[in-house]
Amino acid sequence: MRVTVTVNDQDYIRDVEPRLLLVHLLRDELGLTGTHWGCDTSNCGACTVWLDRVPVKSCTVLAVMASGSSVRTVEGLERRGGELDQLQVSFALCHGLQCGFCTPGMLMTARWLLDRLPDPSDVEIREAISGQTCRCTGYENIVRSIRHAAESERAAG
Amino acid sequence: MQVPAHFEYQRATSVEDAIALLERYGPESRIVAGGHSLIPMMKLRLAQPELLVDINGLADLGGISLAGDVLRIGAMVRHAELLASVTAGTHFPLLHDAERVIADPVVRNRGTVGGSVCQADPSEDLSAAFTALRATAVIEGSAGVRRVPMREFFHGPYQTAVGPAEVLVELQIPLSNSATLAGSSSAYLKVDRRAGDWAVAAAAAVLRIDRDSVVTEVGIGLTAVGARQFAAVEAEDFLRGRQLTGEHIAEAGDIAAQHCSPVADQRGPVDYKRHLAGELARRALHAAAARADLAIIGRL
Ligand SMILES: Cc1cc2nc3c(=O)[nH]c(=O)nc-3n(C[C@H](O)[C@H](O)[C@H](O)COP(=O)(O)OP(=O)(O)OC[C@H]3O[C@@H](n4cnc5c(N)ncnc54)[C@H](O)[C@@H]3O)c2cc1C
Ligand code: FES
Ligand code: FES
């Protein structure tokens, strides 16, 4: 079945089985392996991408359901010219990752949060990432990274 | 890797088109809304539909609005949209209480209200919420539109009044228990093991009291404890017409606990769940009462 998707502003057309999941379209068909695939049960959030500007767990969305839509993955987070998104900078500075497995999902959810709420409280940050599991950091540094990014973006106006 | 079995996929262009597709392909066809219950079941091969009819993007199934004496909530409204709806929260605060504890924000961006109630999982939070609110399900098939009260909607675990070639269009909640009316409000309380998990148990309460603190209308819903139709009817019958006192609320909780039939699972043993059913019903009633009439708190 034909799928037409725009991923990170680039158009793709692929012929896939209806049972292919969006996460596998991204990783296996389009080679965008930044999106991770963990629990396969919509619990861990490693596979979180934006579908039509909203974060969703791509292990529980069919690729055919995304046809005609736009998808944004962690590869689309950095600005043109290779400049990192402030969240990526802040995660690096504040040790927001260790193994990095959860990081792409965390970043996509955090970007969505800060776009809507530039000055979130710690409670709001924790609530926003409550559907994502991190096995390494204990979350403390992830929350700190997101807060750091929020403060940096507000300081930069 | 969990992969669903083979199936065909079609996008419905309208509600009529969805019904026609379901009729043409028969009982092996299934609607997919958010897919957050159905796709996991297909991965585990607990469901193996031959055709999925995608109803995402059908505008007729969207939106939250006031229409006459009801609040209507379209079947395709995502959990996140219901949680963000000021109209829904103003009239029925229990809907926001419930949505805040359903799954997590990313799942809530995709899962739908209609999918929740059609899934009819015994732990589905909105089932008890709509039951307590005495909502009506609007269901469309080729023979026309039917209206089914929530209390006749659930036919058992994973079974509802929606026929194989029918579409749930919307839920309608009567505004007679709107929190904007004096002496009326609602609340939902859930105990879960961790953020985003299904309920160990949960309770919904809708209350209306008159100027003398007599209960004129009451709805009590119970989640995940095997209450018939998600309702604590005996507790409702006990409270209706009585003074809203702490003792009466406590007794209503006891009655609710007595009449439910939880099963033991990894979330807890029967006694614990029964205890939670009673305690959460009590607390939800207190919370609804406090919202309905701030002055009542001192008296309970
Ligand atoms: C990780 C996770 C955690 C969750 N936690 C909770 C929780 O704590 N509490 C809770 O209540 N829920 C929870 N859920 C369930 C979530 O609320 C439901 O998955 C979701 O809302 C179901 O809606 P859907 O749109 O995804 O339905 P789908 O999966 O698309 O459909 C479910 C069923 O309903 C049918 N259907 C859907 N829409 C219609 C319609 N309009 N007419 C007729 N039939 C229809 C489908 O054919 C299917 O049989 C959780 C889900 C996940 C993945
Ligand atoms: S892989 Fe999708 S939520 Fe874990
Ligand atoms: S950094 Fe290893 S899982 Fe989060």
TrEMBL record, chain A:
Tagged with keyword Oxidoreductase: yes
Classification via InterPro entries: 2Fe-2S-bd, 2Fe-2S-bd_dom_sf, 2Fe-2S_ferredoxin-like_sf, 2Fe-2S_ferredoxin-type, Beta-grasp_dom_sf, Diverse_Oxidoreductases
Nucleotide-binding as UniProt keyword: no
Family annotation (Pfam families): Fer2, Fer2_2
The protein's annotated pathway: Alkaloid degradation; nicotine degradation
Domain 2Fe-2S ferredoxin-type: start-end pairs: 1-77
Gene Ontology MF terms: 2 iron, 2 sulfur cluster binding; metal ion binding; oxidoreductase activity
Keyword terms, alphabetized: 2Fe-2S, Iron, Iron-sulfur, Metal-binding, Oxidoreductase
Superkingdom: Bacteria
Gene3D superfamilies tied to this protein: 3.10.20.30, [2Fe-2S]-binding domain
Protein name: Carbon monoxyde dehydrogenase small subunit
Organism: Pseudonocardia hydrocarbonoxydans
From TrEMBL, chain B:
Keyword rRNA processing among record annotations: no
Presence of keyword Flavoprotein: yes
SMART domains membership: CO_deh_flav_C
Signal peptide bounds: none
GO molecular-function term, one example from the UniProt record: FAD binding
Gene3D superfamilies: 3.30.465.10, CO dehydrogenase flavoprotein, C-terminal domain, Uridine Diphospho-n-acetylenolpyruvylglucosamine Reductase, domain 2
Sorted UniProt keywords: FAD, Flavoprotein, Oxidoreductase
Domain FAD-binding PCMH-type: 2-178
InterPro entries associated with the record: CO_DH_flav_C (IPR005107), CO_DH_flav_C_dom_sf (IPR036683), Diverse_Substr_Oxidored (IPR051312), FAD-bd_PCMH (IPR016166), FAD-bd_PCMH-like_sf (IPR036318), FAD-bd_PCMH_sub1 (IPR016167), FAD-bd_PCMH_sub2 (IPR016169), Mopterin_DH_FAD-bd (IPR002346)
Classification via PANTHER family: XANTHINE DEHYDROGENASE SUBUNIT C-RELATED (PTHR42659:SF2)
Name under which the protein is recorded: Carbon monoxide dehydrogenase medium subunit
Organism: Pseudonocardia hydrocarbonoxydans
Lineage: Bacteria, Bacillati, Actinomycetota, Actinomycetes, Pseudonocardiales
